[in-house]
Design goal:
alpha/beta; Rossmann fold; eight-stranded mixed β-sheet; 6 helices; 14 strands
């Protein structure tokens, strides 16, 4: 797996990361959603550099210009519900691609132990297509593995690009064992720790709750 961590280069991306972490600024749910969306746009721009391109002729009013355009068949899949704002950011830059949605949640069994439950999938065929799988928080990595195992039933995926806002070192180490070697991980920033409940520290809290409100 090739890991692309964007915050190691100073850029405006760090402004958006700082605001989604800041417990005072993140109280503004509209601003939180927009910041996740903007991070998704930046990650998408960088991701686009690793796709396949083909030169074609474009007719302008005054002549013809050769331009290289992406030739991959792309499908964007987001993990509900936290992934919706990140999904929009990616879709802003890949506006012609197909879309898929999948649910995944933690079902707590005893104490801090939990299983990942996948209940819903709406997806086109993924056969020989490039999958962009978006989830804001890559914590334990178990949710991404569970949804990927489900998505593989929709066709032989050509290549996978994972898009995340914050990842944990432990989660990255975990998913490396389950995704193909040619997988790319695009992440804004990485934190080293998980707490005993499997949440990223310092992280930002619950991305789904911050974007859409608390749940039962």
């Amino acid at each position: 797996m090739k890991i692309h961590r964007l915050d190691r280069s100073n850029s405006v991306l760090n402004n958006f990361i700082s605001e989604i972490r800041d417990l005072n600024i993140q109280k503004d749910s509209m601003r939180f959603r927009r910041n996740i969306e903007r991070i998704g746009e930046i990650l998408s721009y960088e991701l686009s550099k690793e796709l396949d391109y083909k030169e074609i002729d474009i007719n302008s009013p005054l002549g013809i210009k050769k331009i290289s355009l992406c030739e991959n068949d792309l499908v964007l899949c987001s993990v509900l519900r936290a992934g919706l704002t990140l999904h929009q950011g990616v879709l802003n830059y890949f506006d012609q691609i197909e879309n898929a949605f999948i649910s995944a949640y933690r079902h707590h069994t005893s104490g801090d132990d939990f299983d990942i439950v996948v209940e819903y999938l709406a997806s086109p065929s993924l056969d020989q297509k490039v999958l962009i799988l978006a989830d804001p928080m890559l914590a334990t990595g178990r949710s991404l593995v569970a949804v990927y195992d489900t998505l593989k039933k929709s066709g032989n995926i050509k290549q996978t690009h994972l898009v995340a806002v914050i990842a944990s070192t432990e989660g990255i180490d975990y998913i490396k064992n389950y995704f193909p070697e040619n997988t790319h991980l695009w992440v804004a920033t990485i934190d080293d720790k998980l707490n005993k409940k499997g949440y990223i520290v310092p992280g930002l809290g619950d991305a789904g709750d911050l974007a859409f409100g608390t749940k039962l």
